[in-house]
Amino acid sequence: MKIGKGVEWAAHACAVLALLPPGAALSRECLADYLGVPPPYLAKQLQALSRAGLVLTQRGAAGGYQLARDAETISLWDITAALEGTAPRFRCTEIRRNGPCGASSAECPAPCDIAAAFQQAESVYRETLAAVPLTQVVAGATAVATDGRKQRIGDWIQQNASGLS
Amino acid sequence: MKIGKGVEWAAHACAVLALLPPGAALSRECLADYLGVPPPYLAKQLQALSRAGLVLTQRGAAGGYQLARDAETISLWDITAALEGTAPRFRCTEIRRNGPCGASSAECPAPCDIAAAFQQAESVYRETLAAVPLTQVVAGATAVATDGRKQRIGDWIQQNASGLS
DNA sequence: TTAATTGCGGATAATATATATCCTAATTAA
DNA sequence: TTAATTAGGATATATATTATCCGCAATTAA
Ligand code: SF4
Ligand code: SF4
Fold it and tell me: Is there a domain that residue B123 lies in?
């Protein structure tokens, strides 16, 4: 019943990509190094983000990843959905149809209150995450960073990003 | 990333127990038969409910399970928490401390916006489930049942429950 | 054209969790 | 005492997560 840690990785990766100037890209090696996570597994998450259309990929020399849309339009739910999928997490196995007193089809016109409540709960969960755009994450992280660290991050980007104008 | 199906089983089991007259109890064999699920595994869920204080158990001959409190005061969140635990499902591994531009301790006074958003999302999820008492589930199920089925359920309880006055 | 770089996709292994079952001990009513 | 019943632990199986690797396609620079 856990959420894969890949979600956190992907969120941080997107936050880094949001710092890049337009048109610049970062290779997965650089991203993995920056985040301090194993490169091959991060690649999985990045591929998922790519399939979901959240990042653009550029193959070949000087290739890499960049955000596909403005950071304002990418929410934490977008990232979560790309990694974990959108399938309901509560699985209804229609227990009420079982047993000696099972309900007939006619008595099951709709999901019962149990299933309805879980659907509702997942819905508000989704909406809460959808309300947080990547820009908010970046702004929050920038707010607590010291000037020295901002400098270091800027330098690192200059050194590792490709496609800088 | 899934919720155990035991949650659904336990919810249905509690809904059945809520139909019993005060003081009556049902054995796990009877419950498993009623729900059409494997008895030994349902026992796991019932033990979890017992540990959480949601049901009372009575050992020995003519023993069984009964609700520990009024059905009005037992919510779907109570049942979910008893089965799945209350640990956060989003795991924050403090990635921002990693890598060449890792943040210092002084720069991490609080969880970042990513962690905060997931905490908030889990919170509203929890509250949504907590707002649904067992009585609502029972009322909803009763509303769609035919008279014949209500009769059959009543008969079944008469036949299988112990401690009937 | 050629060689080097880089992401994509599939295959695979290791680990953790969820699912399911069984057995023994403890408890209680009759 | 005897029969019934749950608690709890040990165990097996299935599934999901986590992590890694390799060959291929795409791209670019020399
Ligand atoms: S819809 Fe409700 S009653 Fe039917 S199986 Fe799902 S949870 Fe149980
Ligand atoms: S608190 Fe935020 S920044 Fe730190 S590791 Fe968790 S998600 Fe990442």
Answer: no
